[in-house]
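Propose amino acids for all 171 sites.
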């Protein structure tokens, strides 16, 4: 029996996605950071969303969950402190954290710069990120405003994330 007979594949209208280093739509995320979109939910048929995020020291997220998305983050460069379900751990380059849907979490960048790769499955939270982002321009990157009100408004309007409270890290 051939593989295709055992596991029939539905005809797909998806096309392959191939992007080199640094290639992809760049957005300023109002939660703080530059996203480079590597594979969007629309490109993957909603199976996953993959983006690179470059942030600076002190960038933090509010305590939040993704009710319908499992989130995996991989530290490419730098160091972060992750808070997952009440416990904290430092992750440096090569570190990974997988946060199942519904589990409260947050992170804080503790190095001068950090670069993370985010994989969200399924890729259904794209509307949230787009609603809380703008296309990256030199002027926007230079001013780098953080606007958590815009992030909260996008969460309320688009779903994909539930903000539970302020960042859980002591200052």
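Proposal:
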């Amino acid at each position: 029996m051939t593989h295709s007979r055992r596991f029939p594949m539905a005809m797909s209208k998806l096309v392959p996605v191939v992007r080199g280093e640094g290639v992809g739509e760049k957005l300023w995320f109002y939660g703080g950071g530059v996203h480079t979109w590597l594979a969007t939910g629309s490109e993957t048929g909603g199976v996953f969303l993959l983006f690179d995020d470059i942030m600076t020291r002190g960038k933090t997220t509010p305590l939040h969950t993704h009710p319908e998305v499992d989130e995996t983050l991989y530290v490419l460069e730098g160091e972060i402190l992750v808070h997952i379900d009440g416990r904290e751990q430092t992750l440096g380059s090569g570190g990974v954290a997988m946060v199942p849907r519904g589990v409260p979490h947050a992170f804080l960048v503790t190095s001068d710069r950090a670069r993370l790769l985010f994989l969200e499955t399924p890729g259904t939270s794209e509307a949230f990120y787009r609603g809380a982002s703008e296309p990256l321009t030199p002027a926007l990157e230079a001013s780098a405003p953080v606007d958590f009100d815009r992030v909260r408004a996008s969460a309320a309007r688009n779903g994909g994330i539930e903000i539970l409270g302020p960042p859980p890290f002591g200052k």
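The chain has one domain: 24-161. The helical segments are 3-6, 126-131, 138-143, 148-158.
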